[in-house]
Design brief:
This protein is α+β, with helices and mostly antiparallel strands. It is built from 6 helices and 17 strands. A 5-stranded antiparallel β-sheet has the order 8-7-9-16-17. Strands 1, 2, 4 and 5 form a 4-stranded antiparallel β-sheet that branches. Bound molecules: manganese (II) ion (MN) (2 copies).
Length: 288
């Protein structure tokens, strides 16, 4: 019987493919984002995090604010989609080269993912996966982004043990039967490091505290429905000034976690590829 991880994986893939078809020159990033998120619900799942469409030197965590005006033209576009079915998550990503000038860079992360999947089995060490990713990306003449990594997945938890590296960390921790992991290589023309830059539009709440103002309370109630998973301003229903006020309040209460865009340190272009796998006697790629 198909379990919820398998369901989530399939839906995540279907939504990613749908999303790819929307990322075209002269269309709006915000429109694409809204349609992709709607598709997740249509297929019977919920977003595990807001759909993120990061471009060029932004490796991850770019999420359209409600007033986003970005138009696709010649960017290198990474689409990251995570969905959950009752808390069981499927996470996958791909890169679309709208200029047609970054085929190799796009291929480098995809091939690194393929090669990493090929060696994944019970007992594979994290460093073996990292080494495979690093060597594949370097064989194309690019660098892996070292301070971004894959991760374990757990119920209502998108970043659990283990951390799955994108370079040889010499970590000899072995993969174990039953683990659900996301492998996500990033390849770049830059130095291979990212830093946080720009305004966040992905958030999570790490604790519920009492708030007095009714509309702030209402927004917090809405956020509680996400069970600790990340959310974005577009989801909170109220007017943008009210949402901003509420988020400021949560920040003062120290219950808000912010995830700003992650930008390559030398502004090198970045490509990404990601799949979710189940480590088992026969490894299963859940997001195929
Ligand atoms: Mn992802
Ligand atoms: Mn991931």
């Amino acid at each position: 019987m198909e379990d919820n991880y398998e369901k989530a994986g399939k839906i995540a893939r279907e939504v990613l493919e749908y999303g790819k078809s929307l990322i075209k020159k002269d269309t709006l990033l915000l429109d694409a984002t809204n349609k992709i998120e709607a598709k997740i619900f249509e297929l019977g799942a919920k977003p595990a995090f807001p759909v993120q469409i990061s471009m060029d030197d932004i490796a991850a965590h770019y999420c359209a604010p409600p007033d986003d005006e970005t138009v696709f033209s010649n960017q290198l576009v990474s689409l990251d989609v995570g969905v959950h079915v009752d808390g069981f998550i499927g996470d996958n990503a791909c890169t679309i080269d709208l200029s047609g000038k970054n085929k190799e860079l796009t291929e480098a992360s995809r091939k690194a993912l393929d090669n990493a999947i090929k060696i994944t089995q019970i007992g594979t060490t994290l460093s073996e996966i990292g080494k495979t990713i690093q060597e594949t990306i370097e064989s194309y003449g690019f660098k892996p982004v070292k301070n971004l990594s894959g991760h374990g997945l757990d119920e209502y938890n998108i970043h659990s043990f283990p951390t799955v590296p994108n370079y040889d960390t010499e970590d000899d921790t072995k993969l174990e039967k039953g683990q659900i992991i996301a492998i996500e290589p990033f390849a770049t023309k830059g130095v291979g490091l990212i830093h946080e830059k720009g305004l966040p539009n992905v958030f999570s709440i790490n604790e519920i505290k009492p708030v007095r103002v009714p509309f702030v309370r209402q927004i917090l109630n809405k956020i509680e429905e996400y069970n600790g998973l990340p959310f974005t301003k577009r989801w909170l229903g109220s007017s943008l000034p009210k949402v901003n006020l509420a988020l400021n309040q949560f920040k003062k209460l120290k219950i808000l976690k912010e995830y700003p865009p992650l930008v390559e340190k030398e502004n090198g272009l970045v490509s990404q590829a990601e799949h979710t796998l189940k480590v088992d006697d026969k490894v299963k790629v859940l997001t195929l």
